[in-house]
Specification:
- The longest helix is centred in the first third of the chain and has 15 residues, at about 35-50.
- The protein is mainly β.
- The protein has one helix at about 35-50; strands spanning about 10, 15, 50-55, 70-75, 80-85, 95-110, 115-120, 135-140.
- The protein has one domain.
- The chain has 1 helix and 8 strands; from the N terminus they run ββαββββββ.
- The strands form 2 sheets. Strands 3, 4, 5, 6, 7 and 8 form a 6-stranded antiparallel sheet that branches. A two-stranded antiparallel ribbon has the order 1-2.
Length: about 140
């Protein structure tokens, strides 16, 4: 069994002795996915590419808080809108289906970063009554 030739020493002078692992693979079984499994994987991957996580004031989503599974239109160019998710997103106005609608409650601040915890909110609540931002998971329409 091969070993590292020398211990690893970090910049603080700490010395690490590399360990050793011996792995034996046997009974390797490979299964070819069914056509249905391949199509389902592709569908989920494509949907994942169109999914955005949006944190924004409630007013950005309209006059009232949208319902889960409701069609939502939002302007991603609004400076109050924070977006993460899909790898390639054109800015501007997009439309999709909201799969999660929550209040983004900041539960802890560390330096300039906050730990957000989604909390339930009733659909139809007037936007002006919502003090915290909303956290919405939006699956964009294919042509959005």
């Amino acid at each position: 069994m091969e070993r590292f030739p020398a211990p690893i020493v970090d910049s603080d002078g700490l010395r690490y002795e590399p360990g050793c692992v011996h792995v034996t693979l046997d009974d390797l079984v490979l299964l070819e996915p069914t056509i249905h499994e391949v199509l389902e994987f592709r569908r989920q991957a494509e949907r994942s590419r169109r999914t955005l996580h949006i944190t924004a004031p409630a007013r950005c989503f309209g006059a009232t808080v949208p319902a889960r599974h409701a069609r939502v239109t939002i302007n991603l160019d609004d400076p109050a809108v924070e977006v993460s998710g899909a790898a390639v997103v054109d800015r501007g106005v997009v439309t999709g289906i909201a799969t999660q609608v929550s209040v983004a409650q900041i539960v802890r601040m560390i330096d300039d970063c906050g730990l957000m915890m989604p909390a339930p909110i009733a659909a139809g609540t007037p936007a002006e009554d919502v003090r915290d931002s909303l956290f919405v998971v939006l699956v964009l329409d294919e042509d959005s």
